[in-house]
Amino acid sequence: MKKQKTLSILAATVALGTVLAGCGGGQSSAPQQNNGGGSAAPAPQQNSGGAGGATEKLVIAVVGPMSGQYSDYGSTAKAGAEYALKEKQEAFKQLGFDIQLLAQDDQADPKQGVAVAQMLISNADVVGVVGHATTGASITAAAQYDQEKLVMVSPSATGSDLTEQGKKIVHRICARDDQQGSKAAVYAKNQLGIKTAFIMHDKAAYGQGLADEVKKQFEKDGVQILGYEGVTAGEKDYSAIINQILATKPEMIYFGGYYSDAGIIVKQAREKGFKGVFMGGDGYDSADLVKIAGADNANNVVFTSTVGDVGATEEGKKWITDFESSTGNKVGIFTSFGYDSMGVMLNGLEEAIKANGGKKPSREQVLDAVHKTKDFKGKFVNVTFNDKGDNEFASVYVYKYENGQKVYIGEAK
């Protein structure tokens, strides 16, 4: 959709967002223009350049699935990002700016990602986006942001294609699928001793991209691939494909997709007698997988993640305690990377303000500052962006489910 059309439909979009606010499930709803408290954003104020005078509003948007079956990803990233922003609000007030957060729900839907991106572009106060959380929505939204030089820093969009399209506005602090997939395959062969595997995926950008990388690495390392199939996400009965898989007698089933589908596949395959290893990516990182599959069935489910164990250090444990007591939220899958993504964004914004003589920077100035991020010391990951916007310090980690609990194994080697 072209920029001219954006302005003509904005009023209708916002009105529709009010009607559909709170709708869940897999249905699309229009983006809601608010600042996290449900009220419309006030008009920008003029900056007097001092802490004692009027402050000028600057908005950082946080976008991901906040409702529907993938809401764990967006809501946990938002919680971490909001916590990081609140910690820095006073420092920005001293510079003469009121930093606000604007949360938006893209429902992990590429079309909804475009609608949200167009709304954010039309809001002159928005100078950066933490998100999107999923690959498909990130790719479609990035095409919109690129037209207006609006920078994005994703905590969790792992699809390799995202940073291969030459858009300077795109950045992420997590590892790519070609890293995650290849390291998962190497781990399966070397640490789990897998010699035969059946690979399946959900036909989406994230799931299929991950499965493709696993397939490529297995072929390189001599692991026999007994089948490679796509399934439709959201189905309730995968019996047909499971019967096909079990007939090949694989040691491992690798499914590229999210926990909601993985849980059903695990449950149904176990009920049909499969006792081997299940493996997937960070889309498996949800307690709901265990609820759907059943605790016993989830045993021997292994998955990779771009996020390490937050509580592995004393500093991390303290941060968890502080975060949970301050916010009332539990630390989730992308809370830590939402926090560090916002840290990167705010660091870039501060640098852009300084470079602009203390005045409000343009979107392009913020983009340039974020793109130049080097050796940023995040709480959970260090960040240096290469020319593509990938983080040179990103790593891949391995977890498993055991007796209904997620167990950290270590960095994938």
UniProtKB/TrEMBL annotation:
The keyword Transport applies. PROSITE patterns: PROKAR_LIPOPROTEIN (PS51257). One of its GO terms (biological process) is amino acid transport. Pfam families: Peripla_BP_6. Residues 59-402 form the Leucine-binding protein domain. Keywords: Amino-acid transport, Signal, Transport. InterPro entries: Leu-bd (IPR028081), Leu_Ile_Val-bd (IPR000709), Peripla_BP_I (IPR028082). Residues 1-21 form the signal peptide. Residues 27-52 are annotated as: Disordered. Belongs to the leucine-binding protein family. This is ABC transporter substrate-binding protein.
